[in-house]
Write a structure and sequence with these properties.
166 residues, alpha/beta, Aminopeptidase, seven-stranded mixed β-sheet
């Protein structure tokens, strides 16, 4: 039986650390939370976990930058707000079975879509890279709300402004 659970990462950091090596891209974030109880600069980490028969098999995590003032940028008279980065982790035995797609849809509907809706007066977006890109694109997220590459101040126009204006 499939079951989803939505939580803030600090409430489930120990459980996610227990996944071990498959969890390397998120390991330091969870370790930080267990040692410091919160992330830096107002960042939150929202998690959608997927269980099969009460066993955690995959999760999606949004590093939520909503409270981070350094993620708001004015460019040529328009205000852009980076609301976070999306990650997916699946236990190897459960990969290529569609679970990440289920997580992406749940993450979009329950976390990202309401988050984006709170910012109608700016160009608000989230970032997904690598294998997270097609997962998020299949959710129906607008092209003007999804950045598909990491960027810096030097590449902001090329990787954020131009793609989001299409």
């Amino acid at each position: 039986m499939l079951r989803f659970e939505i939580c803030n990462a600090k409430s489930c950091a120990e459980e996610l650390l227990a996944l071990g090596k498959i969890n390397m891209k998120m390991w330091y974030l969870f370790e930080w939370l267990t040692l410091h109880d919160e992330l830096r600069h107002g960042t939150q980490a929202e998690v959608v976990k997927l269980y099969i028969d009460e066993q955690l098999v995959a999760y999606s995590l949004l590093e939520n930058y909503e409270a981070c003032t350094d993620k708001i940028k004015s460019f040529k008279g328009r205000v852009y707000q980076d609301l976070g980065v999306i990650h997916f982790v699946t236990v190897p035995a459960y990969r290529k079975k569609g679970y990440a797609s289920l997580l992406a849809e749940k993450m979009y509907q329950e976390v990202i879509k309401p988050l984006l809706a709170r910012y109608p007066d700016v160009i608000a977006y989230v970032t997904a890279t690598g294998r997270a890109v097609p997962l998020m694109q299949r959710t129906g997220i607008k092209k003007t709300q999804l950045v598909t590459q990491f960027y810096s101040d030097l590449t902001f126009e090329q990787k954020v402004v131009i793609p989001l204006s299409c």
